[in-house]
Amino acid sequence: MQAILPIPHEGPMNVSVVDTATNAVIGDPLIEFASYADESLAELPANNTDFSVTIPQLEAGQCAQAGDCVLQWFWFGTAAQQTYESCVDFVL
């Protein structure tokens, strides 16, 4: 995944598989940062803007239909008190 962060705001970030019917995260986050996009740094770490995740083995039938699940990127800028989210549908 690649993220463009023109205005970084330090805070936690994660990428997770989310069940759209229940709005619940399935399993553990695929990647997470306790401190992400720290604006006090001269340059952001490379893994803040370019990283890979692996979707785990899910239960039979889970995320099998379009719209059942999304891959969600969630970031909360602590000082800015701003939430940023982006989702992409996928099918397994």
Summarize the structure in words.
By secondary structure, the protein is mostly beta strands. Helix content is 0%, strand content 42%. The chain contains no helices and four strands. The chain has strands spanning 11-19, 24-36, 69-77, 82-89. Strands 2-1-3-4 form a four-stranded antiparallel beta sheet, with no helix packed on it. The chain is elongated and about 45 Å long. The two termini are 18 Å apart.
Key phrases:
elongated, four-stranded antiparallel sheet, 4 strands, 0% helix, mainly beta, 92 residues
Provide mean pLDDT, rounded. Answer: 95
Low-pLDDT parts are none
Q: Give me the side-by-side strand order of the main sheet.
A: 2-1-3-4
E-strand count = 4
Strand content: 35-45%
Rg calc: 14 Å
The share of residues in helices is under 10%
Q: Major sheet: size, sense and barrel closure?
A: 4 strands, antiparallel
The shape is elongated
Order of helices and strands: EEEE
Label the structural class: mainly beta
CA-to-CA gap between the ends? 18 Å
Total helices: the number is: 0
Question: What are the SSEs and their pairings?
Answer:
Blueprint: E1 11-19, E2 24-36, E3 69-77, E4 82-89
Antiparallel strand pairs: 1-2, 1-3, 3-4
In short:
0% of the residues lie in helices and 42% in strands.
